[in-house]
Amino acid sequence: MMEKSNTIILAFVGKGGVGKTSLSAAAVRLLSKAYPDKRILAIDADPAVGLATALGTDASLTVDDIRKAFVAQAKKGNTGAAVELLGEAKYRMFDAVAENGNVSFLAIGRPEGAGCYCKVNAYLKEIISMLAGNYDYVVIDGEAGIEHVNRRVMEKVTHLLLISDASRKGLQVIKTIHAVAKEMVMFEKAGVIINRIPDMSLAENLDAGATEILSLIPDDSGVAMNDATGESIYSLPESSPLMQGAKEALVKLGVIQGN
Ligand SMILES: Nc1ncnc2c1ncn2[C@@H]1O[C@H](COP(=O)(O)OP(=O)(O)O)[C@@H](O)[C@H]1O
Ligand SMILES: [Mg+2]
Predict the structure, then answer these.
(1) Over the stretch 71-93, which tens digit does the pLDDT of each residue have?
(2) How many domains does the chain divide into?
(3) Which atom of ligand 1 is nearest to the CA of 197?
(4) Distance 22 CA to ligand 1 centre (A)
(5) pLDDT tens per residue across span 219-258
(6) Rounded to two decimals, what is the model's pTM?
(7) Residue 104 sits in a domain of what CATH number?
(8) Is 158 domain-assigned?
(9) Could you tell which of 149, 215, 227 is best to mutate to test the pocket of ligand 1, judged by most ligand atoms within 8 Å of the CB?
(10) Of 4, 97, 210, 246, which alpha carbon lies 20 to 30 A from 114's?
């Protein structure tokens, strides 16, 4: 099942703690402001969660809950109930979407544990793709790598945002993700954002590989404060380095207009 081909799908990937969630939330905020009449879906695909808080949304049901209910029935040998649950999965998935103005939110939850429920997962992934096709923009806050997004959320991404901090490890991780993504041929454009740079004099020496650097974002104490106090991205000033850096990246990708 293919998403509607004109859905723009942005995936934020990179090592833990580099700013994927903050930047995903910033992207959602920028998109909802730039396109008040468009439909935007934010997907939290990181089992470490956090996007709901960053967006100030609350969502209780996750895709994992839907899967677990099915697996529990199947394990009890209750095939009839399990099949029925699977038939209902589509409606449950729509119920799991929290709507707030032109922004909707869906959390994937935990990855599958021991044992692969491959068919169930493939089916749920198809429903996610179908759901995504109803939106104009989809922002995925990914767990570390693109292969996770591919396995758990959807096959196709139009814009791959490789997020790193200034550490060698972070930069190495995005190079690896980019190489894996190229092999999977599943994105149209990729770009790098280097975030939380402790000293901007480092900037020119950061090696992000062959991928275009979309923006360089300094360490922004406002973001950390915001996070510590449980405030959403909407309480950060538009002029904050993180919001500015997110904007610069989306403009360079041609996803929003600069001004
Ligand atoms: N530019 C920045 N400056 C300072 N702190 C930041 C910046 N970007 C993100 N943070 C903080 O770093 C931590 C990790 O960010 P987060 O967006 O949760 O990363 P990830 O989702 O990649 O794990 C959070 O506490 C967040 O508030
Ligand atoms: Mg995160």
Answers:
(1) 888 888 888 888 888 888 888 88
(2) 1
(3) 1
(4) 6
(5) 999 998 988 898 999 999 999 999 999 999 999 999 999 8
(6) 0.94
(7) 3.40.50.300
(8) yes
(9) 227
(10) 97
